Amino acid sequence: MNAYDYIEGIPMWAGKKHSLEEIEDFLQELKDPQKSFCVVHVAGTNGKGSVCAFLTSILKEAGYFTGTFISPHLERLEERFLLDGNVIGQEDFRQSFQEVYETAKKRQERGLGHPSYFEFLFYMAMVLFARKGVEAAVLETGMGGRLDATNVIKDPLACAITSISLDHTKYLGNTIPEIAGEKAGIIKPGVPVVYDGTDQEAAQVILSQALRQKAPAEAVTGEDYVREKASLAGETGQDGLQEGFWIRECLGGRAGLRLCVPFSAPYQAQNAMIAVKTARVLNRRGLKISSEQIVRGVANARWPGRMEQAAAGVYLDGAHNPGGIRAFEEAAFEIIQRQGKKPYLIFGVMEDKDYREMAALLCEKVSWQAIGLVHGKSSRGASLLSLKEAFEPVYGGPVYEFSSAEEAMEKMKVMSGDGLVFCAGSLYLTGEWKQALNKVNADKGVNVHD
């Protein structure tokens, strides 16, 4: 049996979503693998993957063998499972699949339902981490929080909630407070939570839930750090291409840690600080994490597809909702101003996203020389016609339609010359852009940076 085909054959959005009690029952049949390691639970709309990346790197620096469960993947299913920040191999994937598959089959024979797509992958992560002897696990929620499969974890060491934006409104609610309420569902009695406090509506909901659960709560706002003018642009890092900046932590009017944030996007400062405060919570709760290990962990974090400089002059970002696009445009504008080069945009998005508002946000500050639209391989992608109509009222420059990510990358790279190409709109498309960029650069002997 091909494990990859089997998993991809499980409906992602259809079928029965099991209750937390049913998920707990399935885990019991797997001998409760989730009880063999401590857990950091991370929810939010934007930035939760980045916070997971920072926390993974910090825990690794502190000497803890760390497992990380994230979603979605960019190119391969294995990317959802990390051991000490590294994507697992095919054999570990196969063994984890087999154990979950056999348990699911036995339960089906007893008339019990099959796990959903996300549930199946979550079970795989739990058995993988237990089998490999993981000491600390960083778990990212799939969607929401309150009813998410990962919320079966009853006693995490800490919870973190990142910025809240309008996304998955069909399932989570149509307002920021409603969505924040779903995300805050991961808060457990007495378990400390660190949360993004920049949106007052969301922050109020999260804090109220923390008070109900008697959970210590700590907000992170722009007052918790200052960004220094010095940047890493032009320096050579371990990837050959180095982007990033420095921030200084503010501790009640006195200076705290000086942190190197190894990403282009300014929004990563907020994510880094959420991770830093969460690491301090972990230290207070029994894990030994020093300030030096926090500094090294932040500096060594890697997170593909989030304003990633994938090649010289090419940036990939998985921003796929209004909040993410707003942060993307701010980051792109800063990069453009710093480098003084002409910008070009490649954009594609899923049909259930608010791409009309996203189009308007994309054109608020940046004067794109041209915009390329792409549908991608997913059947869920918004049509090129719909995307073109979304940009017509807000953008007067040339708009090109491409049948594939490869065609878009090839032609926009030629069109841009020595300018900058930015790709945004979908995490699912980010993997296609990376593959397309590798093909475009293959004849030149240049590879996309991992």
From TrEMBL:
Obligatory cofactor(s): Mg(2+)
Keywords: ATP-binding, Ligase, Magnesium, Metal-binding, Nucleotide-binding
The reaction(s) this protein catalyses: (6S)-5,6,7,8-tetrahydrofolyl-(gamma-L-Glu)(n) + L-glutamate + ATP = (6S)-5,6,7,8-tetrahydrofolyl-(gamma-L-Glu)(n+1) + ADP + phosphate + H(+)
Enzyme class: ligase
Superkingdom of the source species: Bacteria
MF terms (GO), sorted A to Z: ATP binding; dihydrofolate synthase activity; metal ion binding; tetrahydrofolylpolyglutamate synthase activity
Entry EC number(s): 6.3.2.17
InterPro entries: Folylpolyglutamate_synth, Folylpolyglutamate_synth_CS, Mur-like_cat_sf, Mur_ligase_C, Mur_ligase_C_dom_sf
Any Pfam family: Mur_ligase_C
Any one of the GO CC terms: cytoplasm
NCBIfam families on file: folC (TIGR01499)
Family (UniProt): Belongs to the folylpolyglutamate synthase family.
Protein name: tetrahydrofolate synthase
Upper classification of the organism: Bacteria, Bacillati, Bacillota, Clostridia, Lachnospirales
